[in-house]
Amino acid sequence: MNWQEILNLPVSGPGIYQLLAIGDRYMGRQWFRYDGYGRGAIHLTWSYAAHTAAARARAQLVEIMSGL
């Protein structure tokens, strides 16, 4: 999966877990920045905090993979 495909992943439902799995595979277990919500927020039920954390994780993953 390339960064353009990652950019199109949803930040709700299974997309949250896909983002985590992709980040773990490409960057190792500690790739997600703890920035207020932290990685743990992604594991919440589909709440606003989880969606926000997933959106931040997706943006960071795209940034890392695209070299921006």
Automatic annotation (TrEMBL):
Biological-process GO terms, alphabetical: carbohydrate metabolic process
GO MF term list: catalytic activity
Alphabetical list of InterPro entries matching this protein: 6-hairpin_glycosidase_sf, 6hp_glycosidase-like_sf
The protein, known as: Uncharacterized protein
Species the sequence originates in: Linderina pennispora
